Amino acid sequence: MIIQSPEGWRRSLVTALRGVCAHLRRCRDRSSPLTADLPTPVTSTRVQPMNSSDPPLQPPPSPGTELAKARNRAAEERTLMAWIRTCLSLISFGVGIDRIVAVLQRHLSESVNAFRLSRILGLSFIALGTVAMLAAALDHRYQLQRIQRNDLVYVSRRSAAFIVAAVLAGLGAIAFLGILVSMFIP
């Protein structure tokens, strides 16, 4: 095994690249003896039908296009999984609030208005998680259909994450005001 210096590696690489470039120039030249027996490339993208009554056949899909579709489908799957995790967290949080409030209400005989508000807050989290899950599933199905029919033009739309964040901010504000008011009302 011969060990070369970095300068030797560079010279070897440059020599190899020059050889490849020369070969490509010979291949490009149709009169070259290397490519004289090759057929002329077909410039039409449509495949002609066997019978004149048959509709024209579509060309086979490009591997690059199919790989892009596969990447987009994988991205859609990851997005749906992220929405599922988010929605399950919201639903679990709502169930947790509701169960804690139910246990506290059972142990404390007096009826406190804050318990009712907390129970409504827990049910709101459950409802928000369920609605967001359904919206994410429907959007996922729509996006997969767009990928399948090659309709991948960007369409501006409202962000579902922004809508969920706005609803959560509203629920948080209601909970904050409810706790604040219950502190001052006996």
Q: Layout of SSEs?
A:
Layout: H1 6-28, H2 63-107, H3 113-148, H4 160-184
Helix pairs in contact: 2-3, 3-4
Description:
The protein has a domain at 63-184. With 186 residues, it is an all-alpha fold. The protein is built from four helices and no strands. It starts with 5 loop residues before the first helix and ends with a helix. Mean pLDDT is 76; it is low at 41-45.
List key phrases describing it.
186 residues; 69% helix; mainly alpha; elongated
User: Beta-strand level of the residues, as a percent range?
Assistant: under 5%
The poorly predicted ranges are 41-45
Radius of gyration, whole Å: 32 Å
Structure classification: mainly alpha
Quick structural overview:
The protein is mainly alpha-helical and 186 residues long. The chain is built from 4 helices and no strands.
